[in-house]
Amino acid sequence: MNRTEHDRTTAPRRRARRTLSILAVAAAVTASLLAGQRLTSGPPTPLLAPAPSGVVAPEVGTPQPFTPPAPPPPPASLTPEQIHQRVAPTTVHLISSVGWRDTAGTGIVLTPDGLVLTNHHVIDGATDIRAVNQGNGASYDVEVAGYDRTRDLAVLRLAGAAGLPTPALGRSAEVRTGDPVTAIGNADGGGVPMAAGGVVTAIDRTVTARDSADGSTNRLSGLIEVDADIRPGDSGGPLVDDTGAVIGVSTAGTAVSHDDGPTPAPPREIKSYAVPIDEAITVVDQVREGRGSDTVHIGPTPLLGISVSDSVTVPGARVVAVGYGTPAEGAGLVRGDVITTFDGRPIRSAAEHTALMVARHPGDRVELGWTDEAGRPRTAAMVLTTGPPR
User: What total number of domains does the chain contain?
Assistant: First the structure.
């Protein structure tokens, strides 16, 4: 899709014994030298040579100024082929089953045991998610560890993964307009990692995307804009700099249009976008630490069993579909009802309803208030079950 870490008991002891033995040898050598001086005729030979004329010798034990080491040289730029060879094995091809259709996306492997970063919209609504690692070709079942739909980010776990290669992570705060970049991903769902080169055309950009689940709009801000041709299926893949370090997560792109007529029109200007990696890693850290928030959901997704859109008649979230056998159906909700309260809080839009569900988990009890198509107010309590990511 495209919306575009010893045994800490033994090691120190071994080092201590080695240190003591070195000190013992040093003491013995010093003692023999001193003894030799007493047996030799003539004045004793000083252990420290006198300082040259005009030079003041430093006192023993006087700390000397510290000269910091020279900084390491910057990483060398890589060719496009080298970037692809280095980064492609650190990605996964994601296949999300939504209803009767499969959609494709890309993920970035963050840890050897299979923690993966991708876009939320890649796994949104999926009842089953599979991943194929592009380094070893192995297929893995996927568990959703958490997500932030407002930033279009999701963190996944690959069941049974071990020893997977991971990419270097750069710093998106250091990205500047004109920097060369490469987007790598499962372009057009082909199952083969492809690379698209370009440059950074702008930073700190804002785009508005419409959520296919509830029709609400979502403003994504602080994005990196590039002219790399990011295609459907590239979503969730790495945007890397010329050293192969990940600086962003590809999230949206504008495809090039073509005209097959006798006088082809020029292609539209390519504008593709990526979530900065600095921002993405803050979400990853929250998920790994289990720190949910108003926007970051941890663990399995709760299911109420309805799809909603903004109501055009009265403030609220209009029910456009009710799932069979779901808590909503059991409570009597039907298509056309307008949800007006959620646990006593007013609901004025579909987005507000969706936002309140972020902090809920399977097994939670919630109470909804709604107005039916006849205008009658109704309320009911229901227990949330487990559903696909939303």
Answer: 3
Residue 264 falls inside a structural domain = yes
HSE-CB of 133 using CA atoms within 13 angstroms: 28
Domain interval for residue 23: 6-34
Average pLDDT over residues 220-224: 94
Average pLDDT over residues 354-383: 91
Residues 113, 118, 124, 129, CA torsion sign: negative
Q: How far is CA 108 from CA 89, 194, 291, 328, in A?
A: 10, 14, 22, 36
Long-range CB contacts for residues 16-23, cutoff 8 Å, separation at least 24? none
Contact 193, 186 (CB under 8 A): yes
Whole-angstrom distance, CA of residue 75 vs CA of residue 48: 45
Read off the pLDDT of residues 98-152 as tens digits, 9 standing for 90 and up: 878 888 999 999 999 999 999 999 998 888 999 999 999 999 999 999 999 899 9
Full-model pTM = 0.73
For the chain, what is the mean pLDDT? Answer: 81
Which CATH number goes with the domain that contains 183? Answer: 2.40.10.10
Residue 183 domain-assigned (yes or no): yes
Choose the final residue of a domain: 260, 275, 290. 275
Pick 297 or 35 by higher pLDDT.
297
Q: Is residue 345 part of a domain?
A: yes
Rounded-to-integer distance, Cα 280 and Cα 84, Å: 22
* Pair 256, 344 in one domain: no
